[in-house]
Amino acid sequence: xxxxxxxxxxxxxxxxxxxxxxxxxxxxxxxxxxxxxxxxxxxxxxxxxxxxxxxxxxxxxxxxxxxxxxxxxxxxxxxxxxxxxxxxxxxxxxxxxxxxxxxxxxxxxxxxxxxxxxxxxxxxxxxxxxxxxxxxxxxxxxxxxxxxxxxxxxxxxxxxxxxxxxxxxxxxxxxxxxxxxxxxxxxxxxxxxxxxxxxxxxxxxxxxxxxxxxxxxxxxxxxxxxxxxxxxx
Length: 233
Ligand code: CA
What we know:
Layout: E1 6-10, H1 14-26, E2 30-34, H2 37-47, E3 51-55, H3 63-70, E4 77-83, H4 87-95, E5 100-104, H5 108-126, E6 135-138, E7 141-144, E8 149-152, E9 155-157, H6 161-172, E10 177-179, H7 180-188, H8 195-210, E11 220-223, E12 227-230
Parallel strand pairs: 1-2, 1-3, 3-4, 4-5
Antiparallel strand pairs: 6-7, 7-8, 8-9, 10-12, 11-12
Helix pairs in contact: 2-3, 6-8
The structure holds calcium ion.
């Protein structure tokens, strides 16, 4: 990486904030920190960080409010942090434009993996040579975007057009959680709440075709109550 990435840490719980900042420093990232939502908005405006790690429960305005206030003009990545069991909040934050989430308590390894994914997407959205990838590979899974073919361990797998579109969408966002609403909107345009059920059916079918053990998926991971994530390594 030629220039060090700048990370903004927004967290009112001091021990957690310190833990995040120390980890970032150890990994060689620059960081700035704050414990309120309002100062987060002004720091985003003044420093234009590459990634924002945003706690949802803040003392003044909550994280969701911060996302709504900055998302129109702030292009970099937002990773929300929330407690286990707050799936509804996470989904709202992701649908409002957050890019990913971390569930407390999390390990340094998880935090760094999320940041790497976010930065990779920042890089790829910055590259403007107009070429897009022709294939996707993770483990034994390969997608040939040109021929619209999918292989697992070198064996071709036959997906229906919708299954293929869902898998392609996920591969273009590998490592990142996609909410049910996001997938439904991208694939079908409009949707109703009931469609979450049919999405589940499609996912089950894709898994049956891709996964050796569909109950313990290697590629398509479920984020309970939130959505799905395609493994990126
Ligand atoms: Ca908090």
